[in-house]
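2024-03-11 09:14:02 DEBUG pipeline.ingest accepted 1 chain
2024-03-11 09:14:02 DEBUG pipeline.ingest length=158
2024-03-11 09:14:03 DEBUG pipeline.predict start
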Amino acid sequence: MVLSEKLNWSKKNGQNSLIANVPDETHPATDATLAGVNKIARYAKDFMQPIFENWNGKKVAWYGTSIADGYPINTDVARYPNIVVTALGGVIQNRSLSGNCIRRYNYDGSPVFTSTSFLNVNATRNYQKDILNLIGTADEPDLFVFDFGINDWTSDIT
């Protein structure tokens, strides 16, 4: 699903329909009404609904960047994964962090072994360790979601 197309948030024929809903053209939570966040949540809920027949109590670990973290507000009302999973009846473990990206390889196919790789995203989050620490525990999710977008590529300076 290409969410920007579903939301009609794109630049077409010189018209920028994104900025009307997302003032900084990246973060839906920059609109104080949170209209953009709620639009994303509606589409994401419809997309995710069929994953489980019954979502009641299903645990979801959601990994993402600033949009899933609700930047710049960074509260649950601005985090669309929280809205989606709660509306479906599940339990959200939103592990998104603003400014992160997820990668294993550079564009040339060489491995990324920097602070922005999957193994060590930054000093506060190591996704591989985080995931492994959940498996086999009472907090083990029924679903892992990896939610990274087009603006999360910039760490590849090559």
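2024-03-11 09:14:41 DEBUG pipeline.report The radius of gyration is 16 Å.
2024-03-11 09:14:41 DEBUG pipeline.predict end
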